[in-house]
Amino acid sequence: MKKFNEAKELVAALEADADKFYNKANSAAGTRVRKGMQDLKNLAQAIRLEVQDTKNKATK
């Protein structure tokens, strides 16, 4: 659950930069959003693997 909460916090932290990029055309904010989305992708993959591992252990 810890990693899931990290993902939620990451999305919340990116909200201000996303607003700056989409509404104010701030390209530096766009770069930060892209980096944050890559971090989110990696975190999501780690969560997927953790869930799968936990599920497999429970069925044995």
Automatic annotation (TrEMBL):
Keywords, ordered alphabetically: Coiled coil
Claim: Kinase is one of the keywords in the record: no
GO molecular function: DNA binding; structural constituent of chromatin
Domain of life, source organism: Bacteria
Database matches in Pfam families: Hc1
Keyword Ribosomal protein among record annotations: no
Coiled-coil segments on the chain, per record: 4-57
InterPro entries, sorted: Hc1 (IPR010886)
Function: Might have a role analogous to that of eukaryotic histone proteins.
Annotated family: Belongs to the histone H1/H5 family. HCT subfamily.
The protein's name: Histone H1-like protein Hc1
Biological source species: Pedobacter caeni
